[in-house]
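Could someone model 2-acetamido-2-deoxy-beta-D-glucopyranose with this protein?
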Amino acid sequence: MLPTLCTCLLWLSTSGLWTVQAKGSGTDVSTRNPHRDLAPNNVDFAFTLYKHLVASGPGKNVFISPVSISTALAMLSLGARGYTREQLLQGLGFNLTEMSEAEIHRAFRHLHHLLRESNTTLEMTMGMWAHSFDLESTREENFYVNETTTVKVPMMFQSNTVKYLNDSVLPCQLVQLDYTGNETVFFVLPVKGKMDSVITALSRDTIQRWSKSLTIRQVDLYIPKISISGAYDLGGIMGDMGIADLLSNRTHFSGITQEALPKVSKVLHKAALQVDEKGLEAAAPTRVSLSAAPEPLALRFNRPFIIMIFDDFTWSSLFLGKVVNPT
Ligand SMILES: *[C@@H]1O[C@H](CO)[C@@H](O)[C@H](O)[C@H]1NC(C)=O
Ligand SMILES: *[C@@H]1O[C@H](CO)[C@@H](O)[C@H](O)[C@H]1NC(C)=O
Ligand SMILES: *[C@@H]1O[C@H](CO)[C@@H](O)[C@H](O)[C@H]1NC(C)=O
Ligand SMILES: *[C@@H]1O[C@H](CO)[C@@H](O)[C@H](O)[C@H]1NC(C)=O
Ligand SMILES: *[C@@H]1O[C@H](CO)[C@@H](O)[C@H](O)[C@H]1NC(C)=O
Ligand SMILES: *[C@@H]1O[C@H](CO)[C@@H](O)[C@H](O)[C@H]1NC(C)=O
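Reply:
Sure, complex below.
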Protein backbone atom coordinates (compact mmCIF):
# COMPACT_ATOMS: atom_id res chain seq x y z
CA MET A 1 0.00 0.00 0.00
CA LEU A 2 2.99 2.30 -0.36
CA PRO A 3 1.30 4.33 -3.14
CA THR A 4 -0.96 5.97 -0.55
CA LEU A 5 1.99 7.65 1.04
CA CYS A 6 3.24 8.80 -2.34
CA THR A 7 -0.14 10.28 -3.09
CA CYS A 8 -0.07 12.19 0.14
CA LEU A 9 3.37 13.51 -0.57
CA LEU A 10 2.46 14.51 -4.08
CA TRP A 11 -0.52 16.24 -2.67
CA LEU A 12 1.59 18.03 -0.12
CA SER A 13 3.80 19.30 -2.87
CA THR A 14 0.95 20.59 -5.00
CA SER A 15 -1.58 21.43 -2.37
CA GLY A 16 -1.27 25.19 -2.71
CA LEU A 17 -3.09 24.88 -5.99
CA TRP A 18 -6.24 23.85 -4.26
CA THR A 19 -8.63 26.05 -2.46
CA VAL A 20 -11.99 25.75 -0.87
CA GLN A 21 -15.23 26.65 -2.47
CA ALA A 22 -18.54 26.53 -0.71
CA LYS A 23 -20.76 27.11 -3.67
CA GLY A 24 -23.17 24.66 -5.15
CA SER A 25 -22.65 21.95 -2.55
CA GLY A 26 -26.32 22.18 -1.65
CA THR A 27 -25.59 22.86 1.99
CA ASP A 28 -27.85 25.20 3.83
CA VAL A 29 -26.02 27.53 6.19
CA SER A 30 -28.35 26.53 9.00
CA THR A 31 -27.77 22.81 8.60
CA ARG A 32 -24.81 21.16 10.27
CA ASN A 33 -21.78 21.89 8.20
CA PRO A 34 -18.92 19.48 8.84
CA HIS A 35 -16.19 21.54 7.19
CA ARG A 36 -17.07 24.62 9.19
CA ASP A 37 -16.43 22.70 12.40
CA LEU A 38 -12.77 22.76 11.46
CA ALA A 39 -12.54 26.51 11.05
CA PRO A 40 -11.39 27.48 14.57
CA ASN A 41 -8.67 24.82 14.63
CA ASN A 42 -7.58 25.44 11.09
CA VAL A 43 -7.37 29.19 11.53
CA ASP A 44 -5.34 28.81 14.74
CA PHE A 45 -3.03 26.35 12.97
CA ALA A 46 -2.75 28.79 10.04
CA PHE A 47 -1.54 31.66 12.21
CA THR A 48 0.82 29.47 14.24
CA LEU A 49 2.43 28.14 11.08
CA TYR A 50 2.57 31.61 9.52
CA LYS A 51 4.30 33.05 12.59
CA HIS A 52 6.87 30.22 12.59
CA LEU A 53 7.66 30.89 8.93
CA VAL A 54 7.87 34.65 9.47
CA ALA A 55 10.23 34.10 12.42
CA SER A 56 12.43 31.72 10.42
CA GLY A 57 12.89 34.17 7.54
CA PRO A 58 13.19 37.72 8.84
CA GLY A 59 12.96 40.31 6.08
CA LYS A 60 11.62 37.73 3.61
CA ASN A 61 8.32 37.28 1.84
CA VAL A 62 6.10 34.50 3.17
CA PHE A 63 3.24 32.96 1.26
CA ILE A 64 1.32 29.80 2.16
CA SER A 65 -2.05 28.15 1.76
CA PRO A 66 -2.73 26.99 5.32
CA VAL A 67 -5.94 25.07 4.66
CA SER A 68 -4.15 22.98 2.05
CA ILE A 69 -1.41 22.12 4.52
CA SER A 70 -3.71 21.15 7.37
CA THR A 71 -5.88 19.09 5.05
CA ALA A 72 -2.86 17.27 3.63
CA LEU A 73 -1.48 16.52 7.09
CA ALA A 74 -4.86 15.30 8.30
CA MET A 75 -5.03 12.93 5.34
CA LEU A 76 -1.51 11.76 6.09
CA SER A 77 -2.52 11.01 9.67
CA LEU A 78 -4.96 8.43 8.34
CA GLY A 79 -1.99 6.31 7.41
CA ALA A 80 -0.24 6.89 10.73
CA ARG A 81 -0.56 4.75 13.82
CA GLY A 82 -0.50 5.23 17.54
CA TYR A 83 1.38 8.14 18.97
CA THR A 84 2.41 9.52 15.57
CA ARG A 85 -1.23 9.82 14.63
CA GLU A 86 -2.15 11.55 17.87
CA GLN A 87 0.81 13.87 17.54
CA LEU A 88 -0.18 14.87 14.00
CA LEU A 89 -3.75 15.68 14.94
CA GLN A 90 -2.72 17.50 18.10
CA GLY A 91 -0.11 19.41 16.13
CA LEU A 92 -2.94 20.51 13.86
CA GLY A 93 -4.58 21.94 16.96
CA PHE A 94 -7.17 19.28 17.70
CA ASN A 95 -8.04 18.17 21.20
CA LEU A 96 -8.91 14.52 20.81
CA THR A 97 -11.14 14.50 23.88
CA GLU A 98 -13.31 17.19 22.29
CA MET A 99 -13.44 15.89 18.74
CA SER A 100 -12.89 12.26 17.86
CA GLU A 101 -10.44 11.17 15.19
CA ALA A 102 -13.37 9.86 13.20
CA GLU A 103 -15.10 13.25 13.33
CA ILE A 104 -11.93 15.08 12.35
CA HIS A 105 -11.36 12.81 9.38
CA ARG A 106 -14.96 12.99 8.28
CA ALA A 107 -14.76 16.79 8.33
CA PHE A 108 -11.50 16.84 6.39
CA ARG A 109 -12.85 14.38 3.85
CA HIS A 110 -15.70 16.74 3.19
CA LEU A 111 -13.27 19.63 2.80
CA HIS A 112 -11.08 17.52 0.51
CA HIS A 113 -14.11 16.75 -1.61
CA LEU A 114 -14.80 20.48 -2.01
CA LEU A 115 -11.15 21.10 -2.83
CA ARG A 116 -11.08 18.54 -5.58
CA GLU A 117 -14.24 19.85 -7.16
CA SER A 118 -13.32 23.47 -7.01
CA ASN A 119 -11.88 25.47 -9.83
CA THR A 120 -11.34 28.50 -7.66
CA THR A 121 -7.58 28.67 -8.12
CA LEU A 122 -7.88 29.54 -11.77
CA GLU A 123 -10.33 32.25 -10.93
CA MET A 124 -8.06 33.52 -8.22
CA THR A 125 -5.02 33.70 -10.44
CA MET A 126 -7.18 35.62 -12.87
CA GLY A 127 -7.77 38.11 -10.09
CA MET A 128 -11.50 38.56 -10.13
CA TRP A 129 -12.31 41.35 -7.74
CA ALA A 130 -15.92 42.12 -7.00
CA HIS A 131 -14.94 45.70 -7.96
CA SER A 132 -12.12 45.87 -10.42
CA PHE A 133 -9.20 48.23 -10.32
CA ASP A 134 -9.00 50.86 -13.03
CA LEU A 135 -6.80 49.36 -15.79
CA GLU A 136 -5.68 52.71 -17.12
CA SER A 137 -4.67 54.07 -13.75
CA THR A 138 -2.00 51.43 -13.05
CA ARG A 139 1.39 53.09 -13.08
CA GLU A 140 4.87 52.53 -11.84
CA GLU A 141 5.52 53.70 -8.30
CA ASN A 142 8.07 53.30 -5.56
CA PHE A 143 7.74 50.52 -3.02
CA TYR A 144 9.78 51.07 0.12
CA VAL A 145 11.16 47.63 1.07
CA ASN A 146 13.18 48.95 4.01
CA GLU A 147 15.30 51.94 5.05
CA THR A 148 17.82 51.34 2.28
CA THR A 149 15.96 49.60 -0.55
CA THR A 150 13.30 51.02 -2.86
CA VAL A 151 11.89 49.07 -5.82
CA LYS A 152 9.50 49.95 -8.65
CA VAL A 153 6.11 48.24 -8.80
CA PRO A 154 3.06 48.60 -11.05
CA MET A 155 0.62 50.23 -8.63
CA MET A 156 -3.08 49.59 -9.22
CA PHE A 157 -5.71 52.14 -8.28
CA GLN A 158 -9.38 52.25 -7.48
CA SER A 159 -11.48 54.85 -5.77
CA ASN A 160 -14.36 53.12 -4.14
CA THR A 161 -16.41 52.65 -1.03
CA VAL A 162 -14.69 49.80 0.79
CA LYS A 163 -14.53 48.29 4.26
CA TYR A 164 -11.79 50.21 6.00
CA LEU A 165 -10.29 50.41 9.47
CA ASN A 166 -7.63 52.53 11.09
CA ASP A 167 -7.03 50.20 14.02
CA SER A 168 -6.94 51.83 17.42
CA VAL A 169 -5.48 48.73 19.07
CA LEU A 170 -2.77 47.63 16.64
CA PRO A 171 -0.50 49.95 14.62
CA CYS A 172 -2.09 49.34 11.20
CA GLN A 173 -4.75 50.27 8.67
CA LEU A 174 -6.63 47.67 6.69
CA VAL A 175 -9.21 47.13 3.98
CA GLN A 176 -11.37 44.11 3.29
CA LEU A 177 -12.16 43.52 -0.39
CA ASP A 178 -14.42 40.91 -1.92
CA TYR A 179 -13.30 38.50 -4.57
CA THR A 180 -15.61 36.59 -6.87
CA GLY A 181 -16.87 33.38 -5.32
CA ASN A 182 -16.88 33.57 -1.59
CA GLU A 183 -13.35 34.73 -1.04
CA THR A 184 -12.66 37.78 1.03
CA VAL A 185 -9.28 39.47 1.10
CA PHE A 186 -7.71 41.52 3.90
CA PHE A 187 -4.90 43.89 2.99
CA VAL A 188 -3.20 45.03 6.19
CA LEU A 189 -0.76 47.92 6.14
CA PRO A 190 1.27 48.16 9.36
CA VAL A 191 2.67 51.50 10.40
CA LYS A 192 6.25 51.80 9.14
CA GLY A 193 8.50 49.45 11.13
CA LYS A 194 5.59 47.87 13.01
CA MET A 195 5.13 44.75 10.88
CA ASP A 196 6.32 42.43 13.66
CA SER A 197 3.93 43.71 16.31
CA VAL A 198 0.97 43.33 13.94
CA ILE A 199 1.97 39.78 12.95
CA THR A 200 2.45 38.79 16.61
CA ALA A 201 -1.12 39.90 17.30
CA LEU A 202 -2.70 38.02 14.38
CA SER A 203 -5.25 35.56 15.70
CA ARG A 204 -8.82 34.44 15.36
CA ASP A 205 -9.84 37.10 17.90
CA THR A 206 -8.06 39.83 15.97
CA ILE A 207 -9.78 38.84 12.72
CA GLN A 208 -13.13 38.77 14.50
CA ARG A 209 -12.53 42.17 16.05
CA TRP A 210 -11.51 43.59 12.67
CA SER A 211 -14.57 42.12 10.98
CA LYS A 212 -16.76 43.90 13.50
CA SER A 213 -14.88 47.21 13.43
CA LEU A 214 -14.45 47.76 9.70
CA THR A 215 -16.64 50.55 8.36
CA ILE A 216 -17.60 51.45 4.82
CA ARG A 217 -15.95 54.57 3.54
CA GLN A 218 -14.63 56.17 0.38
CA VAL A 219 -10.97 55.24 -0.11
CA ASP A 220 -8.45 55.96 -2.84
CA LEU A 221 -6.79 52.60 -2.79
CA TYR A 222 -3.34 51.83 -4.22
CA ILE A 223 -2.28 48.18 -4.27
CA PRO A 224 0.73 46.72 -6.14
CA LYS A 225 -0.01 44.42 -9.06
CA ILE A 226 2.08 41.43 -8.11
CA SER A 227 2.66 37.71 -8.29
CA ILE A 228 3.22 36.17 -4.90
CA SER A 229 4.48 32.66 -4.40
CA GLY A 230 6.06 30.56 -1.73
CA ALA A 231 7.74 27.14 -1.74
CA TYR A 232 8.70 25.47 1.49
CA ASP A 233 9.94 22.25 2.98
CA LEU A 234 7.91 22.42 6.17
CA GLY A 235 9.64 19.45 7.83
CA GLY A 236 11.70 21.48 10.30
CA ILE A 237 8.83 23.81 11.15
CA MET A 238 6.55 20.82 11.80
CA GLY A 239 9.08 19.63 14.37
CA ASP A 240 8.99 23.07 16.02
CA MET A 241 5.21 22.83 16.09
CA GLY A 242 5.23 19.53 17.94
CA ILE A 243 4.92 17.14 15.01
CA ALA A 244 8.46 15.84 15.39
CA ASP A 245 7.68 12.22 14.59
CA LEU A 246 6.70 13.10 11.06
CA LEU A 247 10.32 13.16 9.97
CA SER A 248 12.01 11.02 12.59
CA ASN A 249 12.80 7.34 12.42
CA ARG A 250 10.11 6.66 14.96
CA THR A 251 7.38 7.48 12.49
CA HIS A 252 4.82 4.74 12.30
CA PHE A 253 2.96 4.65 9.07
CA SER A 254 1.91 1.05 9.49
CA GLY A 255 -1.48 2.04 8.14
CA ILE A 256 0.22 2.57 4.83
CA THR A 257 2.73 -0.22 4.62
CA GLN A 258 3.52 -3.43 6.46
CA GLU A 259 7.07 -3.34 5.21
CA ALA A 260 10.03 -1.63 6.78
CA LEU A 261 9.09 1.70 8.28
CA PRO A 262 8.85 4.28 5.55
CA LYS A 263 10.04 7.76 6.31
CA VAL A 264 8.48 10.99 5.24
CA SER A 265 11.52 12.77 3.91
CA LYS A 266 10.06 16.12 3.02
CA VAL A 267 6.90 18.11 3.51
CA LEU A 268 6.78 20.25 0.41
CA HIS A 269 4.33 23.05 -0.03
CA LYS A 270 3.86 25.55 -2.82
CA ALA A 271 1.36 28.35 -3.13
CA ALA A 272 0.97 31.08 -5.71
CA LEU A 273 -1.34 33.99 -6.35
CA GLN A 274 -1.52 36.71 -8.92
CA VAL A 275 -3.03 40.03 -7.97
CA ASP A 276 -4.25 42.17 -10.82
CA GLU A 277 -6.95 44.64 -11.81
CA LYS A 278 -9.62 42.41 -13.27
CA GLY A 279 -13.00 42.29 -11.66
CA LEU A 280 -16.63 41.56 -12.20
CA GLU A 281 -17.80 45.13 -12.16
CA ALA A 282 -15.95 47.74 -14.12
CA ALA A 283 -13.96 50.22 -12.13
CA ALA A 284 -15.35 53.67 -11.71
CA PRO A 285 -12.29 55.78 -12.39
CA THR A 286 -14.13 59.04 -12.69
CA ARG A 287 -14.78 60.44 -9.29
CA VAL A 288 -17.67 62.84 -8.95
CA SER A 289 -16.23 65.54 -6.77
CA LEU A 290 -18.77 67.47 -4.86
CA SER A 291 -17.25 70.59 -3.46
CA ALA A 292 -18.65 69.89 -0.01
CA ALA A 293 -17.48 66.25 0.11
CA PRO A 294 -14.35 65.59 2.13
CA GLU A 295 -11.29 64.40 0.26
CA PRO A 296 -11.32 60.60 0.21
CA LEU A 297 -8.72 58.90 2.30
CA ALA A 298 -5.71 57.67 0.32
CA LEU A 299 -4.28 54.30 1.30
CA ARG A 300 -1.04 53.25 -0.42
CA PHE A 301 0.36 49.77 -0.02
CA ASN A 302 3.83 50.99 -0.86
CA ARG A 303 5.67 49.39 2.05
CA PRO A 304 5.64 45.83 3.48
CA PHE A 305 2.11 44.56 4.07
CA ILE A 306 0.08 41.49 4.98
CA ILE A 307 -2.41 39.75 2.71
CA MET A 308 -4.94 37.23 4.01
CA ILE A 309 -7.54 35.43 1.92
CA PHE A 310 -10.38 33.58 3.58
CA ASP A 311 -13.28 31.60 2.30
CA ASP A 312 -16.14 33.62 3.69
CA PHE A 313 -18.43 30.64 3.98
CA THR A 314 -16.24 28.07 5.73
CA TRP A 315 -13.78 30.55 7.21
CA SER A 316 -10.96 28.52 5.78
CA SER A 317 -7.65 30.29 5.54
CA LEU A 318 -6.93 29.99 1.82
CA PHE A 319 -3.79 32.12 1.72
CA LEU A 320 -1.63 34.00 4.19
CA GLY A 321 1.14 36.22 2.98
CA LYS A 322 3.71 38.71 4.15
CA VAL A 323 4.88 40.87 1.29
CA VAL A 324 8.19 42.53 2.07
CA ASN A 325 9.56 42.89 -1.45
CA PRO A 326 7.01 42.47 -4.24
CA THR A 327 9.61 42.25 -7.06
C1 LIG B 1 -8.94 18.90 25.93
O1 LIG B 1 -10.30 19.14 26.26
C2 LIG B 1 -10.63 18.72 27.58
C3 LIG B 1 -12.14 18.88 27.74
O2 LIG B 1 -12.59 20.08 27.18
C4 LIG B 1 -9.83 19.55 28.60
O3 LIG B 1 -10.14 19.14 29.90
C5 LIG B 1 -8.34 19.35 28.32
O4 LIG B 1 -7.58 20.19 29.15
C6 LIG B 1 -8.02 19.68 26.87
N1 LIG B 1 -6.62 19.33 26.59
C7 LIG B 1 -5.78 20.18 26.04
C8 LIG B 1 -4.40 19.66 25.79
O5 LIG B 1 -6.10 21.32 25.71
C1 LIG C 1 -11.68 25.70 -14.88
O1 LIG C 1 -11.60 27.04 -15.36
C2 LIG C 1 -10.97 27.17 -16.63
C3 LIG C 1 -10.85 28.63 -16.95
O2 LIG C 1 -11.97 29.35 -16.52
C4 LIG C 1 -11.80 26.40 -17.67
O3 LIG C 1 -11.18 26.50 -18.94
C5 LIG C 1 -11.87 24.94 -17.25
O4 LIG C 1 -12.68 24.23 -18.14
C6 LIG C 1 -12.44 24.81 -15.83
N1 LIG C 1 -12.35 23.43 -15.40
C7 LIG C 1 -13.35 22.82 -14.78
C8 LIG C 1 -13.11 21.41 -14.40
O5 LIG C 1 -14.42 23.38 -14.55
C1 LIG D 1 16.80 45.84 2.70
O1 LIG D 1 16.34 44.98 1.67
C2 LIG D 1 17.37 44.53 0.81
C3 LIG D 1 16.72 43.77 -0.34
O2 LIG D 1 15.79 42.83 0.14
C4 LIG D 1 18.34 43.68 1.61
O3 LIG D 1 19.38 43.24 0.77
C5 LIG D 1 18.92 44.52 2.75
O4 LIG D 1 19.73 43.70 3.57
C6 LIG D 1 17.79 45.11 3.59
N1 LIG D 1 18.35 46.04 4.56
C7 LIG D 1 18.00 46.02 5.84
C8 LIG D 1 18.62 47.07 6.69
O5 LIG D 1 17.23 45.19 6.30
C1 LIG E 1 -4.94 56.45 12.41
O1 LIG E 1 -5.02 56.62 13.80
C2 LIG E 1 -3.84 57.15 14.39
C3 LIG E 1 -4.05 57.24 15.88
O2 LIG E 1 -4.55 56.02 16.37
C4 LIG E 1 -3.56 58.55 13.81
O3 LIG E 1 -2.33 59.03 14.34
C5 LIG E 1 -3.46 58.44 12.30
O4 LIG E 1 -3.32 59.74 11.76
C6 LIG E 1 -4.69 57.79 11.74
N1 LIG E 1 -4.50 57.64 10.31
C7 LIG E 1 -5.44 57.94 9.42
C8 LIG E 1 -5.08 57.72 7.99
O5 LIG E 1 -6.53 58.35 9.74
C1 LIG F 1 -21.16 31.73 -1.96
O1 LIG F 1 -21.72 31.03 -0.87
C2 LIG F 1 -23.13 31.01 -0.87
C3 LIG F 1 -23.59 30.37 0.39
O2 LIG F 1 -23.29 31.19 1.44
C4 LIG F 1 -23.62 30.30 -2.12
O3 LIG F 1 -25.03 30.33 -2.14
C5 LIG F 1 -23.07 30.98 -3.35
O4 LIG F 1 -23.40 30.26 -4.50
C6 LIG F 1 -21.57 31.11 -3.29
N1 LIG F 1 -21.13 31.91 -4.41
C7 LIG F 1 -20.13 31.57 -5.19
C8 LIG F 1 -19.89 32.43 -6.38
O5 LIG F 1 -19.40 30.63 -4.95
C1 LIG G 1 17.57 7.55 11.33
O1 LIG G 1 18.16 6.36 10.84
C2 LIG G 1 19.33 6.57 10.09
C3 LIG G 1 19.81 5.24 9.56
O2 LIG G 1 19.00 4.19 9.93
C4 LIG G 1 20.38 7.25 10.97
O3 LIG G 1 21.56 7.49 10.21
C5 LIG G 1 19.83 8.54 11.50
O4 LIG G 1 20.75 9.14 12.41
C6 LIG G 1 18.51 8.33 12.23
N1 LIG G 1 17.93 9.61 12.59
C7 LIG G 1 17.37 9.86 13.76
C8 LIG G 1 16.81 11.22 13.94
O5 LIG G 1 17.30 9.02 14.63
